[in-house]
Please model this.
Amino acid sequence: MGGALNINHLLFLGHGALWTIGLSAIALVGGGSFGFLIALGRVSPSRAVRLLAATYVQLIQGTPLLVIMFLSFFGLAALGLNISPLLAAGASMTIFVAAYLGEIWRGCIEAVPKQQWEAAEGLALSRSQRMVKVILPQAIRLATPPTVGFMVQIVKNTSLASVVGFVELTRSGQIINNSLFEPFIIYSIIAVVYFSLCYPLSRLSRRLERSALQKKPALA
Amino acid sequence: MGLVLDFSVVLDRWQALLDGATLTLQLAFIAVVCGAAIGVFGAIGRRGGNVLVERLCGAYVEAIRNTPLLVQIFLVYFGLSSLGLQFSAFTVAAVALTINVGAYTTEIMRAGFDSIHKGQIEAAEGLGLSRAQIYWHVIIWPGIERVYPALTSQFVLLMLASSVTSQISAEELTAVANYIQSETYRSFETYIVVALIYVALSFIMRFGFWLLGLALFPRRRRLGTPL
Model:
């Protein structure tokens, strides 16, 4: 048997925690870029594009992330595509995050007062100019608190990458547990690490929300 | 080599898929009912005025909302067994999901209860309603009515998240999928079918909650808007 928990185990957990942060960053950047396109698609003037983006959101929001992970890791492998756990986890997180962030950001774009759209149109700005110069700068300010809040979900959901063998925090805990068999202690440590990653983000999101509420009159 | 998709071997096992889906819904149902009860008491505790109770409820909510469900499930699973208590995977899954959704429900319901205008409560006091009556008629039901959409989407998310309990071998839909794909080697087809079943389940749940909302909140039914 493996003996007691020692410094090497903690270093291994630390390494896993770094990968949790790395995967979260991949998911945020990938899912953010894709999600931005989804949000634009949801408010597109073309009916077909709107329908396509809405279908994507409905399908992904109705499917558990775990199943998306299995699909991209085992499913694509069965089709003859060999994917590494990192690629499978990164792609799944991107697909998943895009659906949720896209929907959050669509809400923010639509929350920009109607008069702003009309004023921009009255100034003869083209549609893309209207978007880039008038709507998006205001939408980004509205979007910051819920996006930071959603980052908590991203960090937590990276734990599901452990099922495809990606060695992030949860998986490294499982590996250590297999040699020590001290599950309660190990998972408690892991829970504390996740908490210390997520709690500051939760607090930040709430603070941003509160200050956005106070600034509201200036925005409208 | 050409790519051949064969859904028939998966669809032949519809009985197992149906059993899995039923168990997923059962898990979701138990967690939603118990979680809603926890949510009501937790939200009352968070605004009840007793500092200790407020702190405790706050700590519960923050601890659950800032850690992954997978880790919570492992903690409950191994925590109970290290206490020498042996339960079935289904029981552990139901307990873990209930604890999880209870925290989210507490936070959502607190927002609903806080949205009740102070004047309403004062008016109820002026009418001589007891504390319990005020909570029941003026705070709890109107509060829930206001956050009902947020609550129901949280419950649908919970149903999807229950897939994680396959990791402690609760025999719900995802576990059935893992079993089928290991038996048929048709993992792509299996997970596509299961993903579509989940999409269908979440539509069914949303429709059910919409009907329930009509039954629970007659004012919404009459006016088409909450409150």
Summary: Residues 14-47 of chain B form the longest helix (34 residues). Chain B touches chain A through 42 residues (CB under 8 Å).
